[in-house]
């Protein structure tokens, strides 16, 4: 079956622009996670949804970051007024149990 | 402070030999551990996991060992193949308040190169 998909795969934004990153999880997966991966680092947790409820947003680095999953399937991560330090790969993962399955990521470059 | 540490940034082995990747953790609340493999420009791919109630889990060429007292786990790949060349991430999870699916804490990864 289809895995986790993310779009766009690559995004270049000028500093100060708003961006929206989309995640389509595996069908039926209740849990959805967003991670941020900086160059040379492991992924770092941003936020977690169980169905449409955002149960943990402790990893969001600032109030410029906002995530939603209104119908409990597709999720969008929005970054307002992007800064250079936001440049990273943004990974989405979904799960039914303890193993999380990742999408290919969106590489965001802020110039 | 890094709660999951992979102290070897890279490892090089010959095809057919054993690859051993190591991982240490500091948080005693972690009770589930996973290994992921990542190729360039792709997302991490789940390989194998182990619960803290076990000390070994095997799946084909991959075996994960857990030493809880030392807060140490390792991934063994036998025999190693050139296609195994990738970055390997160790990850750990502690049960959330809901008792189920929860965030992963990752190490920085180890780049494995298997030479033909």
Structure explained in plain terms:
Chain A has 111 residues and is an all-beta fold. Helices cover 0% and strands 50% of the residues of chain A. Chain A has no helices and 11 strands. Chain A has strands spanning 5-7, 10-13, 19-24, 31-37, 44-50, 53-56, 65-68, 75-79, 88-95, 101-102, 106-110. In chain A, strands 2, 4, 5, 6, 9, 10 and 11 form a 7-stranded mixed sheet that branches. Chain A has a 4-stranded antiparallel sheet with strand order 1-3-8-7, with no helix packed on it. The radius of gyration of chain A is 13 Å and the shape is globular. The mean pLDDT of chain A is 95. Chain B has no helices and 11 strands. Chain B has strands spanning 4-5, 10-14, 19-25, 32-38, 45-51, 56-59, 62-67, 72-77, 86-93, 104-106, 110-115. In chain B, strands 2, 4, 5, 9, 10 and 11 form a 6-stranded mixed sheet that branches. In chain B, strands 1-3-8-7-6 form a 5-stranded antiparallel sheet, with no helix packed on it. Chains A and B meet through strand 4, strand 5, strand 9 and strand 10 of A and strand 4, strand 5, strand 9 and strand 10 of B.
Q: Helices, strands, pairings?
A:
The complex is a heterodimer of chains A (111) and B (116).
Chain A: E1 5-7, E2 10-13, E3 19-24, E4 31-37, E5 44-50, E6 53-56, E7 65-68, E8 75-79, E9 88-95, E10 101-102, E11 106-110
Parallel strand pairs in A: 2-11
Antiparallel strand pairs in A: 1-3, 3-8, 4-5, 4-9, 5-6, 7-8, 9-10, 9-11
Chain B: E1 4-5, E2 10-14, E3 19-25, E4 32-38, E5 45-51, E6 56-59, E7 62-67, E8 72-77, E9 86-93, E10 104-106, E11 110-115
Parallel strand pairs in B: 2-11
Antiparallel strand pairs in B: 1-3, 3-8, 4-5, 4-9, 6-7, 7-8, 9-10, 9-11
List keywords for this structure.
heterodimer; A: 111 residues; mainly beta; four-stranded antiparallel beta sheet; 11 strands; globular; B: 116 residues; six-stranded mixed beta sheet; five-stranded antiparallel beta sheet
């Amino acid at each position: 079956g289809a895995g986790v998909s993310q779009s766009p795969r690559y995004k270049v934004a000028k500093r100060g622009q708003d961006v929206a990153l989309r995640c389509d999880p595996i069908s039926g997966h209740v849990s959805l996670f967003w991670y941020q991966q900086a160059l040379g680092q492991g992924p770092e947790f941003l936020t977690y949804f169980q169905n449409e409820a955002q149960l943990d947003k402790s990893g969001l680095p600032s109030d410029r970051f906002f995530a939603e999953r209104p119908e409990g399937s597709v999720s969008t991560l929005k970054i307002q007024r992007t800064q250079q330090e936001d440049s990273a790969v943004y990974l989405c993962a979904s799960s039914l149990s303890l193993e999380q399955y990742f999408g290919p990521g969106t590489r965001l470059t802020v110039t | 402070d890094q709660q999951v540490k992979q102290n070897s940034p890279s490892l090089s082995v010959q095809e057919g030999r054993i690859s051993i990747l190591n991982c240490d953790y500091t948080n005693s609340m972690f009770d589930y551990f996973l290994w992921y493999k990542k190729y360039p420009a792709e997302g991490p791919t789940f390989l194998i996991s182990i619960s803290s109630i076990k000390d070994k889990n095997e799946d084909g060429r991959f075996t994960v060992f857990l030493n809880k007292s030392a807060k140490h786990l390792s991934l063994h790949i036998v025999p190693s193949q050139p296609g195994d060349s990738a970055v390997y991430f160790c990850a750990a999870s502690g049960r959330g308040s809901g008792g189920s699916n929860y965030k992963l804490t990752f190490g920085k990864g180890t780049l494995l190169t298997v030479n033909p």
